Amino acid sequence: FPPHSPAQKLVFNRVNGKRPQVLPQQVSATEECYTLAHEENVRFIYEAWQQVEQQLDGSRSGESACGPVQYVEKTPNPGLKNFVPIDLEEWWAQQFLAKIENSS
């Protein structure tokens, strides 16, 4: 998806020559502003992680003798037994849809 395209503005025509009441747009406190540098950093990390995952898959299937090794704790922390890792692609999709819904 395109990096931060400006939201489309709605234009209202005057009715009977009356000026429509304009309310200032409020930006929610939870809305984050992403800079180009932020987007580049996220893209870099994402692409690097994809390469690591491909190398891990290759080492599991015996394609390469050396490469990344997945760390697994020998004694897992009981406080993390209900930990669920975030699905970053799903999170980005939800953020994207929320922006579309909020701008309409």
Automatic annotation (TrEMBL):
This is MCRI2 protein. Pfam families: FAM195 (PF14799). It is found in: Cytoplasm, Stress granule; Nucleus. InterPro entries: MCRIP. Belongs to the MCRIP family. One of its GO terms (cellular component) is nucleus. The keyword Nucleotide-binding does not apply. Keywords: Cytoplasm, Nucleus. The keyword Acetylation does not apply. Coiled coil: none annotated.
